[in-house]
């Protein structure tokens, strides 16, 4: 590789500790700062967004209020579909780039699929769907915001059903409401707002979305690539293709557009931004309790540099979703769970030493303190989390 710089696993872990705001001296002062550092917070499980931010905030910043202000008052963060057809929370400054690079193509496929399913399993056609959407948008313009159930009461068409997969083993009756609202959300016409209930609830209210600039898809991919490499680089082409869900040709074009430079990793060739070749000093020792689906744990396809492959079976479910994890200096060293009485239990899967155990205990106490009476159960249960939660 000639003069190509080699970045070993230790330096990658140092970058992770600093750039993902996990080392104590690197922690964020606001939810927006934490979200911006990570580019995307997994939003499939609402509680994970709050837990991920809480792990990265400096002392004295109350996590729930900070996240709720950023999501529902300041508008610094926005919840929307993104990579791999998954709901994420993004900095609002990146919403247009995500929409153009990733969400819009998925929305086209989603609308096409919905029309196909309606044609096969009902008497509804494109005109019926367009009128239903018009009524939903008109209702939200009057109400300001509403839950799916409230919209169903106001727009009876949303309570309609259709037969999914007629004549197949997957045949079943499905509601029109969830599919229509998802399509409108993916197209950027409506947005998820404050939920009905607590911060752990997924019963979101819907509201009309603010118009986003219609960016050129290639420019949007380059913008998202620039932010992600700044947070998570170096990364291999396989990492980037997996994380974005883009075609490999689009990944390569985006890398070229941002002027990414090749580096050598244990896994092969990685990529960094052109101004990111300087060594990153290792931060002070740090521990963290990260939630299920945390963006640090789910940021790369190749994870051996921070996760012992022998621990995968305990920490992941069968679909590849990671559960709550315990970290020490950039490595996953165990898992944790909350028991019905509110106590947090953890288990180390490797001997991390006495200093690590003290730091992990301190993080456990910190998390226990702000959770208080709240009980959090991950949406995707993993073997170790299930065991610890009932132990």
Secondary-structure map:
Elements: H1 9-19, H2 31-38, E1 41-42, H3 46-54, H4 63-73, E2 77-81, E3 87-91, H5 95-121, H6 126-143, E4 146-147, H7 148-154, E5 161-164, E6 172-175, H8 176-186, E7 190-195, E8 204-208, H9 217-232, E9 235-236, H10 237-244, H11 248-257, E10 261-265, E11 268-272, E12 287-290, H12 312-315, E13 325-328, E14 331-338, E15 344-348, H13 354-371, H14 383-390
Antiparallel strand pairs: 1-3, 2-3, 4-8, 5-6, 7-8, 9-11, 10-11, 12-13, 13-14, 14-15
Pfam family, one: AlkZ-like
Organism: Streptomyces nymphaeiformis
Protein name: Winged helix DNA-binding domain-containing protein
The overall pLDDT, averaged over residues, is: 95
Helix/strand/pairing category:
alpha+beta
**Percent of sequence in beta strands:** 15-25%
Radius of gyration: 22 Å
H and E order: HHEHHEEHHEHEEHEEHEHHEEEHEEEHH
Number of H/I helices: 14
List keywords for this structure.
single chain, 391 residues, alpha+beta, 4-stranded antiparallel β-sheet, 3-stranded antiparallel β-sheet, 42% helix
